[in-house]
Design a protein that fits this description.
heterodimer; A: about 575 residues; alpha/beta; B: about 280 residues; 2 domains; 10 helices; flat
Chain lengths: ~575, ~280
């Protein structure tokens, strides 16, 4: 017993060597009236793995930028208190000195790809350090080996998948032998399976290098795929909790702060199970539940009543035997047969390059299919789309791009929404009436005379949706409607889309977000290598391990919970949860 | 657009030269060809250029688009010269050998034909070299060698970076243009010119805005990895200057020297067989 304590102590001394120390630290941006960070006290020890969570605007990215030196090097402002790395005050260090200790992997793995090829991008930091040519080449080889990119050294960013680009970014900071890895939203833009692999790779690197890992992310459940030592919760520029991950998840703090808790915990709470740290709730695979608790879940599943949403049955869009190949001969879609029903909320999922976006381009008329037909339900029955121009199709089918900044081209909100009507030569009094109606639907009426630049990202997204709705389409296709949004904004956008759907619009969403698919889409179509792999309810798809694997999706943790509780029909358990959850919240 | 900067990776003596040496040769070659109207010399340059082209293992169809474009320009250039001054050659060579009376001022003279031949030769002597440079120079290696020639590495790197973002920007332009077309912004010939220009603004503005976002990300990423820390930097794609490179630059100097000494010896830029 004593011996055991000794080991524990020794381990603690090793771990307790403080690497990063914030003391009464604060920061205020030059242009802002209020400080963004207030009285931060946080110690991070060598080799620790920390998750910093919190809603958008809580200051978590600012905290990260203080660590890597972008503050105050690129973003000016006033610092108070003290921040030391390995005992040295950071304000006495340059961004370059800091970059030797803190390696930052930014959110946008495409945007931070600097070199023309993988090898050059990995070598970038070393080049700036004037490392000689031979050492450059051998170091790049070595690091590329660790992240499994040896075969891709001469590839350009355009030839890589999202996951590979992220591995290049990681390799690019690993060449510097940093002591601290800082990941700013590493999971944004990755498909679920790749996100899982990313978390595994981060763990592997940490074990290999003994470096400290700090992850800033709001997709809690996905980060917890691998163990995290501590979760630091931030709200309004302050740290409101700093607990081990098991302790944190046995509280309601995350939920109250607007961070989504893992779905299995929501389900357990519905079943009346009281969660404590002893359950090890941070990972469903390792969680322990007593027989009594498992029975509680089964009872909840069997004894509570839910009503499923009615499934619409009139086809709006019929796609038959459709093929599409690009000019270079690449077949992007093969033998697609799909009916989209009127008034349905449909999700299209699959990994990058599986054909999801191509399909939406073919539907909108941006690309011409090589074979097959498309028909939509018009006033006088079904009519063929092949002779309709992009503009004519847009009267029936609207398309909203992922990034609203790529769509907005007017400075005033009213003009932006009116654009489509004005180019169609609609009389100005009708334009006014229609624009105001669309702005009301989108909750933007109060802002109608504002400039677009005054809006938040989520509001801009709504402007782009309004500018499509004004053309009065029957169906709207949205590419990643909630990418990069925290839970509150995600809920806001999705509830808005749900209300549009209830108002009769057919909504099709292209997404990587399994939560979104599960919670909002009645039906999902899975694409893989240009084919439709499955067409079923979201609950059934995400509880089919074989399908999940083939399409690079991620099983919902509710599936694991169902297995843990000996429920033999996980698909209907998940469906039960979704219906129950909707009724509780709605 | 993307095809204009198409580096084609092959094994050849021309590929082995550093970008800087090739760039120097390109500039000197152009200078040599531009400053003279000596027809035999231009012929020699053309032959030399074609030989170098063969040496590089770049095939005609690799650069066909560019060649066709140049031919169109060449034709246009010649037609315009003839339309505006059909007897320009007569003025230059100081003699008039009428071959065909033509209509009004549009005569055909031997002098005019020789002048046109010179114009054609100027194209044929330089275009292969330009194409050769573009097709055999790795953009990153070029940036590295520009730096070696004494250009500041920040400027050199921005050249490489611009090339890095061309494909992304082209793709983005395409995406934005499609989504704007769906809103009814017509970019095809169905609209008149003025309307099309104002419509183009609807694509350019979002493109600029997202371009600025991109610049923001990439500058941060570069600073975080130490760009600008030292007065110099090394280059992964950098190469040592070889004998071939020196020979290449010497060749360029020789070509300019020949061109200039001919002009001095001849007392003018024009080779005149009519005198």
């Amino acid at each position: 017993m004593e011996e055991n304590n000794d080991i524990q102590n020794r381990k603690r001394t090793f771990m307790s060597e403080a690497l990063i120390r914030f003391e009464h630290f604060g920061f205020q941006y030059l242009a802002q009236a209020e400080p963004t960070l207030k009285d931060i006290n946080l110690t991070i020890r060598k080799g620790e793995k920390i998750l910093i969570a919190g809603p958008s605007g809580c200051g978590k990215s600012t905290l990260g930028n203080c660590l890597n030196g972008l503050i105050p090097f690129s973003y000016k402002g006033e610092m108070t208190g003290s921040l030391t790395i390995a005992g040295k005050e950071t304000r006495s260090m340059s961004i370059f000195e800091l970059s030797k200790r803190v390696g930052t992997v930014l959110q946008d793995s495409d945007g931070q790809f600097i070199g023309l090829t993988v090898a050059e991008d990995i070598a970038f930091a070393l080049e700036n350090d004037c490392v000689g040519r031979d050492e450059l080449h051998s170091r790049v080889e070595e690091v590329a080996g660790i992240v499994d990119l040896q075969g891709h050294l001469s590839h350009a960013p355009g030839e890589l998948s999202g996951g590979q680009k992220q591995r290049v970014s990681i390799a690019g900071v690993m060449v510097d032998d940093v002591e601290i890895f800082l990941f700013d939203e590493p999971l944004a833009n990755l498909d679920p399976a790749t996100g899982k692999q990313a978390m595994e790779l981060i763990d592997e690197i940490r074990e290999r290098t003994g470096a400290c890992v700090i992850i800033i992310e709001h997709r809690l459940e996905d980060v917890l795929h691998r163990n995290v030592d501590r979760i630091v919760l931030m709200q309004n520029g302050c740290i409101t909790a700093d607990l081990s991950s098991d302790e944190m998840l046995s509280t309601d703090l995350l939920k109250q702060a607007g961070v989504r808790e893992p779905l299995y915990l929501t389900a357990l709470k519905y079943a009346g199970v009281k969660i404590s740290a002893a359950h090890r709730p941070s990972n469903i695979q390792k969680m322990t539940l007593s027989e009594e608790e498992r029975r509680a879940v089964r009872d909840w599943y069997r004894n509570t009543e839910t009503t499923a949403l009615p499934a619409p049955d009139t086809d709006f869009l019929r796609i038959r035997d459709l093929d599409f190949a690009y000019d270079n001969g690449f077949t992007a879609l093969q033998n697609i047969n799909l009916q989209i029903r009127k008034g349905e909320l449909l999700a299209i999922v699959g990994r990058n390059g599986a054909g999801k976006s191509t399909l939406s381009k073919v539907i909108c008329g941006f690309e011409k299919p090589t074979r097959g037909t498309l028909e939509i339900l018009d006033r006088d029955g079904y009519c063929d789309l092949s002779n309709r121009s992009i503009k004519e199709r847009a009267d029936h089918i609207g398309y909203v791009m992922q990034n609203p900044n790529q769509m907005i081209c007017k400075t005033m909100i009213f003009d932006e929404v009116a654009l489509g009507l004005r180019t169609r030569g609609v009389a100005e009094n009708v334009v006014k009436e229609k624009v105001e109606k669309a702005l009301k639907i989108c909750g933007l009426y109060a802002f109608r005379n504002w400039p677009v630049s005054a809006l938040s990202f989520g509001q801009k997204k709504r402007v782009t949706i309004a500018s499509i709705l004004v053309l009065d389409p029957d169906m709207v296709i949205l590419d990643e409607p909630t990418a990069g949004q925290d839970f509150r904004h995600y809920t806001e956008i999705m509830e808005f889309l749900r209300s549009l759907n209830e108002a009769g619009y057919t909504i099709v969403m292209i997404t990587h977000d399994m939560h979104l698919m599960l919670e909002y889409a009645q039906r999902a179509v899975v694409f893989c290598d240009g084919n439709i792999l499955a067409d079923d309810t979201s609950a059934n798809i995400l509880t089919d391990p074989d399908l999940v694997k083939r399409a690079s999706l991620k099983e919902t943790s509710l599936y694991d919970l169902a297995l843990l509780c000996d429920i033999d029909d996980p698909g209907s358990f998940v469906q039960h949860f979704i219906d129950y959850d909707r009724e509780v919240r709605g | 657009m993307v095809n204009l900067f198409n580096y084609i990776d092959r094994q050849s003596p021309v590929h082995k030269l550093t970008g800087a040496a090739k760039f120097a040769l390109l500039i000197l070659w152009m200078l040599a060809a531009m400053t003279t109207f000596c027809t035999p010399y231009l012929c020699a340059l053309t032959v030399l250029a074609v030989l170098l082209f063969r040496l590089s293992k770049i095939r005609f169809r690799d650069v066909a688009v560019m060649i066709w474009l140049t031919l169109v320009f060449l034709a246009l250039n010649n037609i315009l010269i003839y339309l505006f001054s059909p007897e320009h050659g007569v003025e230059i060579y100081g003699s008039r050998t009428l071959l065909f009376a033509g209509i009004g001022r549009y005569t055909v003279t031997a002098q005019q034909l020789l002048y046109h031949l010179n114009v054609v030769l100027k194209y044929t002597a330089t275009i292969p070299i330009v194409l050769l440079f573009v097709a055999t120079t790795n953009p990153s290696e070029f940036a590295a060698s520009l730096n070696r020639l004494g250009v500041s590495y920040k400027i050199s790197y921005s050249v490489a970076l611009a090339l890095r973002y061309i494909p992304d920007t082209v793709r983005e332009f395409h995406d934005i243009s499609q989504s704007q077309q769906a809103r009814g912004i017509e970019m095809s010939r169905k609209e008149n010119m003025v309307k099309r220009l104002t419509n183009a603004a609807a694509i350019i503005l979002p493109l600029i805005l997202s371009g600025m976002d991109r610049i923001d990300v990439v500058t941060n990423a570069m600073e975080l990895r130490g760009f600008g820390k030292n007065k110099t930097r090394t280059w992964y794609m950098g190469r040592k200057f070889s004998t071939g490179d020196i020979l290449c630059i010497l060749l360029g100097i020789l070509l300019v020297a020949v061109s200039l000494s001919y002009t001095l010896w001849n007392g003018g830029r024009y080779w005149n067989p009519f005198g």
